[in-house]
Amino acid sequence: MKETIKAFKEGFQSDHFKTKVLYASKAFQTVAMLKLIQSYGLGLDVVSGGEIYTALKAEFPVETIYFHGNNKTPAELRYAIENGIIHFVVDNRMEVELLSILSQEYDKKLHVMIRLNVGIEAHTHEYIVTAHVDSKFGMLYESENCQQAIQIVQTSDHLVLEGFHAHIGSQIFEMTAWLAEIDKLVGYLKEFDEELSLNLGGGFGIRYTESDRPLPIEETVKELVRYTEEALQKQGVTIQQLMIEPGRSMVGEAGTTLYTVGFIKQTPHKKYYFVDGGMTDNIRPALYQATYRCDLATKLTAAKTEKVTVAGKMCESGDVVIQETFLPPAEPGDILAVYATGAYGYSMSSNYNRALTPAVVFVNGDTSRLVVRRQEYADLLRGEVL
Ligand code: LLP
Q1: Which residues are annotated as a binding site?
Q2: Which of 43, 55, 326, 369 could form a disulfide with 22 if both were Cys (CB 3.0 to 4.6 A apart)?
Q3: Which residues does 181 contact at the CB level (< 8 Å), separation at least 6?
Q4: Annotated binding site for substrate: which residue ranges?
Q5: PTM N6-(pyridoxal phosphate)lysine: at which residues (predicted)?
Q6: 264 with 246, same domain?
Q7: Which residues sit with their C-beta closer than 6 Å to ligand 1?
Q8: Could you list the residue range(s) of the whole structural domain that residue 361 is in?
Q9: Is residue 13 domain-shared with residue 150, that is, in the same domain?
Q10: Atom from ligand 1 closest to the CA of residue 290
Q11: Ligand 1 pocket test: which of 139, 170, 289 has the largest number of ligand atoms within 8 Å of its C-beta?
Q12: How many angstroms separate the CA atoms of 305 and 189, rounded?
């Protein structure tokens, strides 16, 4: 995590405008993580009252928090404003209207980034232009909704137009879609007299399996800055600040999930290694057919002679951790390490089947530190009215 944070920070700099890396904390949000992010001076992307609450508990500097989301509730907006958050990435016209009213009521200056749907959807290796005009996120720049939203901000006493935001996808492995996004966003700026800011979103891919070829972070973000400088010069516009908001790439490869192998079962065509977790700590295989690499940590040097399916213990056929992999012969009690589970694993965990969520341990060289304790049964009844 530290190496990745440094690579983002050192690469994402310009002599022409301010730059800021925001951590998209939905990928993995705990107080310990936010303290680490804060110690490197990064900003934060939050998407809910719960993420704001955690950020406040971590004493994250509120002036560097950006509040995202397509349907922030009135209570969440009030909570954010009352706690000093001033940056809002707004998704739609109704949100701008409400924010305008709230900014007056609280008599607070609020900075608004407009989330745009730039019509570019990045897939791992390619991108589609004019895709997804009906996306639930953001507004098409040309749309009436968007123009009205901008107008409301510009005519409001308390709202300040900070700039534009777009996020074009996740687990992206090549630059072209981002460059097309930059061209679009910079193009829009020509219509404004004031100097605005841009946020290019996140999406930097990571290596889950051998077939993933992530872009080197430092070089990639340097190129994003360089290309933006060039595009600005060509279009004759300047910006105040350029932002990006990586989530997965900050934490993904740093995480390893340790399971204990339980029963082993042979069916006519498959051999199953069952583990003491599954979709409740990592829903990505079930939800996105995501693939992972693994090893038997207790038999690291043994030959991988067994073709197996690693399955979880939840009552769902889809609860499979790895569909097919080669591992050494195992026995109950062996430890199975699944790699690159740091992002969207713990943060998407659940108590389905009343499973307990596991502990989270930060490791630094040969020292380690418990940052989330393993749940216990009593945690399951928290909030129940008995
Ligand atoms: N900014 C915005 C506005 C986003 O919606 C997201 C992710 C990010 C930044 C961070 O993207 P990243 O750098 O992590 O790719 N649960 C899914 C991923 C959902 C991503 C949602 N938005 C998964 O496990 O693959």
Answers
A1: 203, 245-248, 284, 288, 316, 344
A2: 43
A3: 118, 120, 166, 168, 200, 201
A4: 248, 284, 288, 316, 344
A5: 26
A6: no
A7: 24, 27, 45, 68, 167, 170, 201-204, 245-249, 284, 288, 344
A8: 255-375
A9: yes
A10: 25
A11: 170
A12: 59
Tell me which of 315, 378, 385, 386 is the catalytic residue.
Answer: 315
Pairwise CA distance, residues 90 & 71, whole Å: 9
Q: Is residue 315 among the annotated active site residues?
A: yes
329 with 283, same domain?
A: yes
CB 41 within 8 A of CB 22: no
How many domains does the chain fold into?
A: 2
- What is the value of pTM for the model shown? 0.97
Query: Nearest CA to 28 among 64, 62, 58, 63?
Result: 58
Tell me, in angstroms, the distance from the centre of ligand 1 to residue 202's CA: 7
Looking at the structure, tell me whether residues 209 and 80 fall in a common domain.
Answer: yes
Query: Which protein residue's CA is at the shortest distance from atom 3 of ligand 1?
Result: 167
What is the secondary structure of 252-306 as a DSSP string?
TTT-EEEEEEEEEEE-SS-EEEEES--TTT--HHHHH-----EEEGGGTTS---E
CATH of the domain at 341: 2.40.37.10
Residue with tokens 């719960």: 50
Atom of ligand 1 nearest to the CA of 252: 14
- pLDDT tens digit at each of 386 positions of the chain: 999 999 999 999 999 999 999 999 999 999 999 999 999 999 999 999 999 999 999 999 999 999 999 999 999 999 999 999 999 999 999 999 999 999 999 999 999 999 999 999 887 666 666 557 888 899 999 999 999 999 999 999 999 999 999 999 999 999 999 999 999 999 999 999 999 999 999 999 999 999 999 999 999 999 999 999 999 999 999 999 999 999 999 999 999 999 999 999 999 999 999 999 999 999 999 999 999 999 999 999 999 999 999 999 999 999 999 999 999 999 999 999 999 999 999 999 999 999 999 999 999 999 999 999 999 999 999 999 98
Atom of ligand 1 nearest to the CA of 203: 15
Q: Give the distance (Å) from ligand 1 centre to CA of residue 77.
A: 21
Query: Domain check: are 21 and 45 in the same one?
Result: yes
204 Cα: distance to centroid of ligand 1 (angstroms): 9
* Domain termination site, one of 224, 252, 280: 252
Same domain for 242 and 313, yes or no, is no
Which of 223, 252, 281 is the endpoint of a domain? 252
Q: Is residue 231 part of a domain?
A: yes
Residues 231, 287 share a domain: no
The DSSP letter of residue 60 is -
